[in-house]
Write a structure and sequence with these properties.
heterodimer; A: mainly alpha; globular; B: 272 residues; 10 helices; 10 strands
Amino acid sequence: MRKGPTVFVTSLVLVLSFVGLGIVVPDQLDKVSAALHGAIIEHFGWAYLLAAFGFVLFSVYLAFSKYGRIKLGRDNEKPQYSYFSWFSMLFAAGMGIGLIFWGVSEPLSHFANPPAYIEGGSGTAARFAMLRSFFHWGIQPWAIYIVMSLSIAYFSFRRGMAPLISNTFYPLLGDRVFGGIGRLIDVLAVFATVFGIVTSLGLGALQINGGLSAVFGLPTNDTMTFIIIGVVTVLYMISSMTGLDTGIQILSKTNVLIAILLLTFVFVVGPTSYILDVFTTTVGEYVSEFVNLSLSTNPFEGYEWTKNWTLFYWAWWISWSPFVGLFVASISRGRTIREFISGALLVPTLLTFLWFAVFGATGLDLQLNQGVDLAASAVSDVTTVLFEMFSYLPLGSVLSLIAVLLLSVFFVTSADSATFVLGMMTSNGDLNPPMSKKLTWGILQSMAAVILLMSGGLEALQRMAIVAALPFTVVMVFMVLSLLKALRYEWKYELQGRRAGDRR
Amino acid sequence: MLNKVLIPLHLHESKERLSEMAEFLKTLGTEQAVLLHVGAATRTAGEQHRRRLGEAAELLQGLGFATETAVRPGSVQMEIVHAAEEFGVQYISFAFRRKNWLKRAIMGSTVKDVIRQSDVPVFAHKGSRRAESDKVYRVLYPTSLQWKGDIIVDYIRSKEFQPDEVVFLHVGKRAPDPVVEQQRRDRVDEQLEATRRQCGLEEQESRQISVLGSARRQIVRIARRLPADVVLLGKADSTSGMGPVLGSTAEEVSYNAPCSVLIIPRDLGGQT
């Protein structure tokens, strides 16, 4: 059943209105978004923690349950992409540019500014910094993505419905998913996706500018940033036109190969044994403190810190989830639920841990053992700290150049995937969305990033994305119930019946 | 089929309620009644119990029942279940009295406990409209459509029941997608129709309702909306999921339904 152009038109009008507000009254938008964002993080932080932990438990349960054998597609269907392509696209869509952005700066930032009960710059602060960086980028974000993508993949590839977030609620809402409630859910998803991607593009462009400045001495100003966004827009529009099977897949594989190359190089030329020490120790602490980390908002001390970092991240991952969820779903056809969950939960997490261990530990080694005050740079300008760290390593300029390349390719891949997903969401879940829709969203997201960087409304938009995360958390909790209901039905009334028939 | 009944009495039962229930039981074809009281085994109390049971027995005899009486010490629900077996009754009938939630939470419900443990049908009588001739006598039969050769069909076909209208109700789960959901609905309609024919009913004597949701809630809701006079409900011993915590559908419906409920253990019929 089709929903017509309502979702496209409504979300376009809504997004344009918000971007318009960001241009015309950036201060007011800033105030309103700050007030909303502040209130949500202040009062619903616990809900984010509980929901994210619940999603982890749900994912693990599904992977080990009898439902793990159910295929995201027809019973005899084979996976559409190879493991390497699949992992590459998973990683590029889920983390990508953010990981490059925060790989060094997050551990150093926590090290310099931990919660009040830890002394900044101490060994305890370093331990805390690594553990929290692992935690923020570890299992939880992927569990959030899994809930979304698994639901979409199941209902579209297994049950033959259009890949739309609203359709995952069929077992709960029935035909109402084709009416107002369904449209509202889809518009909310478009809203969160656009705002998330615009923010990410804006921040990514700033970091590429920082890198170009470090490598080539180019100026760091608005004009440069706009040129970067312009070039990247042309690139991702070209990639987006070629579709999922060529453009995004090739870019994602290139990304991961460059990322592994960079990671290996820094691991070898950096403080190798120190990195391994940090990796082993932090993985151990992460495993042993997982439940405590997952459920602690630190209400007695350090709540401000938790609000600014952990709760912000959780809301951010949730607001990102419609985009990543739809994208990951679209590349996961033919895998079993067990394979999907274990792959999406473990492989990207492991790669993320390695990334943080290598880059974070190298930064901390420079800070603690070599007397280089990188932490001050991380606090003052998060966009350039990676390049500053490279300047202390052999072949620093080459590394910076590779990092700029990596950032650019990740940038293109994220925008490319977002364009594809937005096109899909606003074309009734068409896996080959029309060119016009992709063009509209591609140009709109880049223009919004430019305009909001100029007007200073980018942060406000990021906050709005996080505001959208609260209703989406509720949506995702119901999505879990809906998926469970559908799986139970299939197991009880379809699979068991079929098995009994086979036995006879 | 429902010739001999065990009626547990707590001796504070009003004569009116007992008499109303007994009259209804007669319309089900019941001719013999065993009156049972489970209470303290002291001599004084025993005398008192026997005297009260004697009065109740006289009342029932006046309505044409052949009666027996018994007083037992011990656990109420266990003794009721044992007595049902010992006296060879075809069912157990309670003059149902609703407890408030606090009392129920602390003290539990004898009816629910007996339903869980009994191997014979249990009837929870909540007043009767059958005597009022101007109204339709309506039986609600909720079916999961998972049982073949269902014993409940035999009850509906029996000459004693003779309802004016039987409402076949199926409470299902929505299928995960619209295509399968449509197939499920069509299948349910077909099966309800087949059940109607199996019961030997004409179309005008029956209605079929198929709804989605929780069986325990929907049965009570539909029974109230119709309104139904009796709910005929099968009970399966095996429960899954939250069953052991929440209680079976039969236990919940017997407690919450606005009308009388006859719970029939599936073991009496054949499961295939």
